[in-house]
Amino acid sequence: MVDVKEALREYEDKIPNSILAEVEANLPASVSKEKLKKIMDAIEAEYNSSLAVPGECVGIVSAESIGEPGTQMTLNTFHFAGVAEMNVTTGLPRLIEVLDGRKTISTELMNIHLVKPYSEGKDIKRIAESLKELTMKDFLKEVIVNISEANLKIVLDKDKLELLKLTHSSVTEALRKNVKGFSFKLEKDESISVIQSGKDKDIIQLYKLKEKLKNVYIHGVKGIKQVLPVKKDDEFMIVTSGSNLREVLSLDFVDKERTYTNNIYEIEKEFGIEAARQLIINELMKVIEEQGLNVDIRHIMIVADAMCMSGKIMGINRYGIVKEKPSVLARASFETPIKHVINAGLTGESDPLNSVIENVMLNQPVPIGTGLPGLIVRTKSK
Amino acid sequence: MDNQKAIYKYIESIDFGVISPKLLKSIAKAKIVTPELYDKEGYPVDGGLMDVRLGVIDPGLRCKTDGQKLRDSLGHFGYMELARPVIHISFVDVVLDLLRSTCRSCGRILIPQDKIKEYRDLLDKVGLEQGLIERRDKIKLIIASLRTINKCPYCKEKQYKISIEKPTSFIENDKRISPIEVRARLERIPDEDLKIFGLDPKNARPEWMVLTVLAIPPVTMRPSITLESGERSEDDLTHKLGDIVRINQRLFENINAGAPEIIIEDLWDLLQYHVTTFFDNEVAQLPPARHRSGQPLNTLTARIKNKEGRIRGNLAGKRTNFSARTVISPDPKVDINEVGVPEVIARKLTVPERVTEWNLEYLKGFLERGSDQYPGSNYIIRPDGKRKRITNETKEQLLEEIQPGFIVERHLMDGDIALFNRQPSLHRMSMMCHRVKVLPGLTLRLNPAVCAPYNADFDGDEMNLHIPQTEEARAEAEILMQVQTQIISPRYGLSIIACIQDSISGNYILTREGFKITRDAAVDLLSAAGIDDFKKLPNKKYVTGKEVFSVILPDDFSFVGKSRIFNRDPEDPDSVVKITNGKLVSGVMDSANLGEGSGLLLRNLHKKYGADEIIVFLRKINGLGAEVLLKYGFTSKLSDIDLSEEALQKVTETLDKADEDVKKIIGDFHAGTLERLPGRSIEETLELRILERLNKARNESGKIVELSSPQNSNTMIMVRSGAKGNTINIAQMAACVGQQALRGGRIGKGFKGRSLSCFKKNDLGAVPRGFIRNGFKYGLKPYEMFFMAMTGRDSLMDTALRTPKSGYLYRRLANAMQDLKLEYDFTVRDASKKIVQFNYGEDGLDVSKTEAGKINVKGIIDSFEE
Asked: Among A13, A49, A80, A227, which would you mutate to test the B interface (most chain B Cβ atoms within 10 Å of its Cβ)?
């Protein structure tokens, strides 16, 4: 009996850990030392023969591997059975969105996992509701404008307050905090009366206020527009449309390790660029798999890495990755050629001609693949 | 080939800059003074725009600068003195920024000396991180924030606000600053201060942006064409330059004659207009200069920009000779790495072959046959580079002349190397290297197995063929691009060239449990498929299909996998594919093992026996499949989708039930008792519930059809083997087409409150909103036909909208990532050697060398378990 772990350690420098782990998982229960050595040598040989060769144009291969299936994607996906799901952008539009590195995405979404006992369904409805960004209009029962006295009387929806464990006074407090120029008073009959502070009483102002009041923030997490408690694999969680990672994570019933948002920039802000890279990979893979297409993760990784290499998220467009290219001609060949050439002239830029497209333009060998190695032949001196 | 001289110089880098009048004059070979183009004899006028010192475009003439003839002379720039300076349109923004941020009298930047260093560092940072334009914006902000606008911190001169009247006039104090004044001010800006702006004073002095001398592009850049009538038609640029020269002359004359200022101003503006449109004819505020016909002139900017422009149209993509294009058609007898070329094409496309002592006689044969007889030759190239056409007249003389060192361009022959391509070339398998096979007919022929990588079908598709002309090109094509090297897709590490359609269903029929034929019939079958070694076939009267298939497999090959049946019924004897020592023990061959993008059987064969062998396997498997179908017949017939009375009854019941349920849901909706789904409006809930129910009904009827339609019909075999179609297709034909989706929902209102005028208004039921109850076989009701037409149009729209979108995404991806490559230290880096990944894909594996992105660890371990 050999200590497999010990034996495998020997190969740590030669074979990636992911493969070693697979070896460990697949090895039969008992294996002799000689046999293990044989197996490992075979795997190492196989690994070495499967390596990509230097000069390989991995970028182009990845671009092809993502671009080609892109032509097979559908624009609108049609869900037959998507009852208990949020409506999320998928397919080509989402792919474009992620690769563009857009700041505002069309459908923001969070999957909020919960800690026990909430994950078992305790108070799930109430918790979900408490996340939702609620403005005054969600609580209003009626607003009475008293023209003669120039004041408003607000009657609140008691049931709604009850559900969220809010009181009339807390709502009044929120109004005082968020609306300036008016004074709010909680009456005995639990209605809130509003009087314009200052001398002049302006009915028009009052009417304007009536509309304005509807959008005054009262409760919940800003940015969370809809909530949907769902049960997945015996666990309760909350799916929301709209996203606010920072505030959601500060809530104590939230499982901070598994909660997820599809907003790349929020992830970058909270967890850094490496997390953002992982999210880009996950989101791209998700889109591609949903469409029933097959793309190796390595291609996705290299795109995500290219997008994140500078430490900030760069989109795949003329403001992002393409802008960072050292070659004037490479930039000019993409979009807005005149602008690039003019600016290069102003700064006296020099094009080092070390990438692909500019050498194609000049009819010179491309420094990639078979164009990479130089061959020097010494001629016989006579 | 031979006339191409050895390359001994490479361009290492290109510097960009703004050209100075001095430099331009030293480069220019001629001063242009007259708008006239040709004299009476049609010879270019000296000092005119077609001056022979600028290069030649007429055969017979020689360029006066380099003494070369047409095509050999590259052309040379000329210059023209402008009577008054004119602002270059492309630099207007820069000039404006400079004027606003520098003193109007001393030219210094409006930042006090003590703060210059601080801001310069800040600006350098901005410039480095964000770019030049952002840097200039930042300068404006800094100067505004300093509030020194009113007064120069150096000479205390009062400053005024400068505005721009687009496109090219600068206004200060409601008075226009003439280009002369602009130039004078720019001249005063010291080099030191320019560096703060991020400008490089050596290569881009700002006063050079106000033109005093105009570069005249070489004649070769603007060739004129001679029309059939013998008339000359000049290039747009020549027209524009003619305008400029004319106005410039008039301006000179008027200035010399002391004309009133207002006339001079007008001419000056006109000159400015012409120079501006010469550079860019699409300036927003200016009317574009036009031909007499009203068509806008195509000037410099338009020539460079856009897809058909110089950069994307001529530099990044070029046109080729030695290529052919025609309709393609399938030919299973053509090998996978071959392409059938019609003789007409083979006679036009040539391969240059150098004459040596050893092949002299051989090549003489081609010469003798000339260009009319196949295989002959079209041209002969002498060692001095002269190309001679081979005709019946020249043949005799050339035959005497030919000797080692000559090159014969002979016709294309079997075995020659060709690149075969179908657009859109979305991945590297869209252009592969095939061996030529000259065949009768007029189409290019290819093996159906390579349809998948090219994404080709035969409904009129055309493809291109290119013949590499040098040894390097041929070697590279053969080693890197030949079909067998492309079998494993780098996208997912599985076979992309595999069996399709008939060869899958054929092999499925053959290898199914219970297939039995006489040994003689088996030998017939195999030999028809091109297999002539029958010793693997057991020597008994009857052999099974599996035994026949095993003949193809090599003796030392073992494999275990699953067939498509496994998911449906793991107990089925055919569900597990087991090959032991080259014998197919159990399992049926279907698309799970032979098909594109899934076949692990093919992947394993590839791994074990290599790319060249897999071509042979594929040829044999394809041949066998096709032969089986040929021998036993294979027709999809109408009765394949017949249903029993009982099954039909069941389908009707299911659909009736669904209809009832939908009515109930709608009833609930109207009664207000429908339970709202969280996060949805009540209308959305209704739609979702109905869709859910109808979809269920369709699936149920699909199940019924699947179970009750004839199981061994040919149509079912196609579905079962994965060759083509699925059970939904059969259900749609036999029973019920199902809900038609339009824009991601049920078909809504085409008319007021209803989808078609034959329904009641506001009927939310199944049928009025696009549910098709009938199957294709029974036939659709008129309204159902309309619903199908609607979704058909919708899907056409989807394709039409998707293609440009995904095309643009792909272009961006390719452009952004084209220079990422794997370095010798196994890191992935971009063109500036910045590291993108420390180890490619985190483990350095090449996807096209893996099995579905992985190393088959289990397989290796298992191979040691015997």
From this structure: A80
